[in-house]
UniProtKB/TrEMBL annotation, chain A:
Primary location group: cytoplasm
Descriptive protein name: Sarcosine oxidase subunit beta
A Pfam family this chain is assigned to: DAO
Class of enzymatic activity (EC top level): oxidoreductase
Keyword hit for Repressor: no
Keywords recorded for this protein, A-Z: Cytoplasm, FAD, Flavoprotein, FMN, Nucleotide-binding, Oxidoreductase
Cofactor(s) demanded: FMN; FAD
Length: 405, 94
């Protein structure tokens, strides 16, 4: 056999050992952690930053989400931060100098009942008032946007209409992580893999360092961006959070011809579907109901998800399931995130994004970096405090968060 | 599909059950007397361990009775099931 060209391509980032200390330690090398590190350097000139990742970069939820990006949330607080994120997405390939396969192919949120129709029309009006592009489509318009959706009135859950956000879309999640990682690395930020945080060193109510499987690291600021494992980390600081970690499953089909031009989500039928650039149908559903950290879910969830997909898309009947997986999502009581300060000085929280954190990646990186740099929240994440669960100022997004975000 | 042993009915498929979250959360004896922080803890805050977790299940498609289980959230392994009102048994995840 003749040897093939085995020359390795250039690495996108170094693989450094941890230094004794940093100005900021970001815990979690997923999309949020990498974006936060990037904007700490880009927007605030803070470059003595380490991102600690217990596994490999972007190997958790960043590699497991269904890559849907949209900003059509109901409340002003949510619309502001998700729309901020969407605007950043629109310039992100240029900003990072890296292809992200960002494709604004629109999202349809289907309504199947009169209650759905009323609720989602209300959301369209709310979106329009907040400057978020949104429109209401009648069933025949749904069929124009996405001809493979079954809009027959004779099915179990007929499509009565849909909200449509044309600027919504998808991006390739791996590329997003690599784009942020490459730029962060260029700023001199250390991306440290295989480095699990085992303890938070707090003295006099202030964080002074972290213990890791690769030694102790001194730092005055620790930014948690660990999604499903946030509760485990927060417990090291004696903090109890209103989070529950659940498996969220997704799956892809084999590669198919382009048949699906947009993103379709359905709360009532309980599935969301898009088609990746390469050709796989990408589908997700709701969380597994029980708490779990196992990165795998129950088979009956997938079975119901496939039934739901077939109800909406009869054309998928002969598609083969290629693989399925699960990520661990941290859900909150009001389906909105927690981004801000904690009772421990120098310890910052970014968690509770539940099933919908991917779309927020640049937006939350921007706002969380601001929060860490200035020790106070950015206006866009100011409503998403931990205190809201005591004050009652919840941001209830269960409707817009949908079957999952 | 995972089998969950109902303390009354024996092992059944998990699709017969409904999940009820953390067990042993008692309604406060004097809700009016709680501070906002204490009330928030009761309403919104729950433990979320990676490891053994005492939780409630309802055998929805069977005897329709609630019971408690200790389950390891990292492995999904059920370590013990016991009837409502009984104390949490001592179990290890091994």
């Amino acid at each position: 056999m003749t040897p093939v060209n085995v020359e390795h391509p250039d690495f996108l980032w170094r693989n450094p050992d941890p230094a004794p200390g940093y100005d900021v330690v970001v815990v979690g090398g997923g999309g949020h952690g990498l974006a936060t590190a990037y904007y700490l350097a880009r927007n605030h000139g803070i470059r003595r930053v380490a991102v600690l990742e217990k596994g490999w970069l972007a190997g958790g939820n960043m590699a497991r989400n269904t890559t849907i990006i949209r900003s059509n949330y109901l409340w002003d607080e949510s619309a502001a931060i998700y729309e901020h994120a969407l605007k950043l997405w629109e310039g992100l390939e240029e900003d990072l100098g890296y292809p992200l396969l960002f494709s604004q192919r629109g999202v349809l949120n289907l309504a199947h009942t009169l209650q759905d129709v009323r609720e989602t029309r209300r959301r369209v009006y709310a979106n329009q008032l907040n400057g978020v592009d949104a429109e209401w489509l009648e069933p025949e318009q749904v069929a124009e946007v996405c001809p493979i959706v079954n809009t027959s009135p004779d099915v179990r859950h007929p499509v009565l209409g849909a909200t449509y956000q044309p600027r919504a879309g998808i991006a390739k999640h791996d590329y997003v992580a690599w784009g942020f990682a490459r730029r962060a690395d260029e700023y001199g930020i250390d991306l440290i893999q295989d480095c699990e945080v085992t303890g938070l060193d707090i003295r006099g109510g202030r964080i002074v360092g972290v213990d890791t499987t690769r030694g102790r690291i001194a730092t005055g600021k620790v930014a948690l961006a660990a999604a499903g494992h946030t509760s485990v980390l927060a417990a090291m600081a004696g903090l109890r959070l209103p989070l529950q970690s659940h498996p969220l499953q997704a799956l892809v089909s084999e590669l198919l011809e382009p048949v699906h031009p947009t993103v379709v989500m359905s709360n009532a039928v309980h599935v969301y579907v898009s088609q990746a650039h390469k050709g796989e149908l990408v589908m997700g559903a709701g969380i597994d109901s029980q708490n779990g950290y196992g990165q795998r879910g129950s088979f009956h969830i997938i079975e119901r998800q496939m039934a739901a997909a077939l109800e909406l898309f009869p054309v998928f009947a002969r598609a083969h399931l290629l693989r399925s997986w699960a990520g661990i999502v941290d859900t909150t009581p009001d389906a909105s995130p927690i981004v801000g300060l904690t009772p421990v000085a120098g310890l910052y929280l970014n968690c509770g994004w539940g099933t919908g954190g991917f779309k927020a990646t640049p937006g939350v990186g921007w706002c969380f970096a601001h929060t860490v740099a200035h020790d106070r929240p950015h206006p866009y994440n100011a409503p998403f405090t931990l205190e809201r669960f005591t004050s009652g100022a919840l941001v209830d997004e269960h409707g817009a968060a949908a079957v999952a975000h | 599909m995972q089998l969950i042993p109902c303390p009354w009915c024996g092992p059944r498929e998990e699709a017969e059950y409904h999940y009820g979250g953390q067990a042993h959360i008692a309604y406060p004896e004097d809700p009016q007397g709680l501070t906002d922080e204490q009330w928030a803890q009761y309403v919104f805050f729950r433990d979320n361990p990676k490891g053994p977790f005492a939780e409630r299940w309802l055998h929805n498609a069977g005897c329709r009775r609630w019971f408690n289980a200790v389950r390891d959230t990292a492995t999904h392994r059920l370590l013990a099931v016991y009837r409502s009102g009984e104390p949490r048994p001592e179990v290890s995840s091994r």
